[in-house]
Hints:
disordered N terminus, 26 strands, 17 helices, single chain, alpha/beta, six-stranded mixed beta sheet
Amino acid sequence: MKGNAAMSKVQRGNISEYLPADCMSGSTLWIGGKWEAASDGRTFDTVDPATGNPIISISRAGAGDVQRAVDAAKIGAKVWAELDGMQRAGIMRKAAELIREHRLALGALDSIDSGKAISETSGRNTDGAAGMFDFFSGITDKIRGSVIDMGPKKTGLVEREPYGVVGAISPWNFPMTNATTKIAPILACGNALILKPAEQTPLSALLLAHLLDLAGLPKGVFNVITGLGAEAGAALVEHPDVPKISFTGSTATGRRIAAAAGERLKSVTLELGGKSPFIVFDDADLDTAASGAVTTVFMNQGQTCTSCAKVLVARPLLAAFIEKCKERVAKISIGDPLDPSTDLGPIVSQQQLDRVNRLLSEGVAAGATKLALSAKYSPMVGGCFIAPLIVTDLDPASSLAREEIFGPVMSVFPFDNDEEAYAAANDTEYGLAASVWTSSLARAETARRAIYTGIVWINCVHTLSLNTPVPGRKSSGLGSEYGWEAVDNYMRLKTTVTMFGDYKGLF
Length: 507
C-alpha cells in the first residue's frame, strides 16, 4: 500500500495501492488493532457504481464479530480514558496530518466506491475530514463541569463523563466526511467507538483505520465492522454494552434504530433525511438564486441530506428562474468520477437509481412535467448514471413532491404570496434545512422565524463551518452534529453531592 499524495493518477485497477494488504484478501474487520475476517468467513462485494463491476470482497460481520469489537472497545476505552486531554489532542492532530497526506488515496477510494467526483473527494471532502480532527482536538482539554451552590455544608459537583463505547453507523453519500463527523467528537470526548460504514461504501473507513493506527491511537479505541445494516448494524444497536448509538441515514432506518434503542433505553443521535425548501422571493437576485439552486439540488448527484430540492419561486419570476437554472446546468460535466474534469458521477447504486426512477415515474403519472436539461452528459457503460432534471406541475400530494428523492431532481413550485411560501415550506414531515433568497432584511427575519427547520440559510446554501451545529427537527433527527454542541451527544452527566457537616436523616 502506498496511499500517499504523491500518486498523480487514479485508476480503477490499482485499488491495492490505497488499502492495507490484509484488506485485499477479504479481512476488512479492524478489531483491537488487527485486520480480521468475519468469524464465519462470509463476504460480500462492494461495487463500482460507474461501471457496475465489483471492486473487492468485504468481510460480512455478524453478531459474533460485533461482540469481538465490543470486547476490544471496552479495553480500548479504559486505555483512552487514562490519557489526558492534551495527549488525546496530539493523536488527533496527527490523524489530521495523515488524512491530508493521504488525501488522494482517501479520495480515490470514495470516488471508486460511491461515484463521487475525484475533484470533490480528494479536495473539499478530505479537507473537511481533516478539519474535523483539528477542530475537536482543540476541545479535548476544555470540557468543563460545574459546582452547584447547595448551602454552607454541601457541595454539588456536576461532571461530564464519556459513555465508554459508542456505536457509529455512517451513510454512503459522503463516506469519509460523515464517518469523521462522528469519529472526531466521539474520540475527543474520551470514548472508544465501533464504526459500521454503509455496505455500499466501506473502503475509505478501512484506510482511516490504518491512519488512526499510524497516528498512535491505542488499540481497541477505534474499530471497524463491515457488513450489512440488518445484521452488523442491528447487532451493534442491540448490544447491551454499547450505551450510545450515533446514526446518519434515512428516516425510515432511523426510526427502526430509535425503536430498538428505546427498548434498551439507549441514547441516540440521529441525523436523518430532509425535504428542504428553497424559497426565491420576488425581490431576490435571480442570478445568485439560480446558482444556489443548481448547487444545492445537483451537487453530489442530489445525494445530500441538506439538499434544498423543493424549490418555491415567486410566480412572476418562475419562467426566468428556470431558464437561468438551465443555463447553469448546461455547464455541468457528468461522467467518469475519476476524471478530474468531471463535476458529477453516477448514483451510488442500482437500487438507489431504481428508486429515483420510480419516484419520477409516479410523479409523471400524477401529472408532473419533466424538463430536459442539456448537461455535458457522458455516462459510462454499465454505470448508474442519470442526467439532472427539473420537474414542474407536481401534485403536492405525490410521492415525488413529498419524499426525499436523493437524486439530481429539482422540483419547482410557484407561489403567490409570502404566507403561501411559508406554508408550502413547512408542509413536510422533515425539518432539516431551508434556503431563503430575498433582498429585504425584514423579510429574511420573518422567514427564518416562520420556517420550522434546524438550519436556515439566507441568500446562501450549504454554508457551514466546523463550529456550526447541524440540528434536525421533526423527522430529520435528534441531537446536533458539528460544533461544541456535539460534545453533548457523546458525554453524559454525573452529579456528586458531598456533605461537610453532620448528616441528619429523616429517621
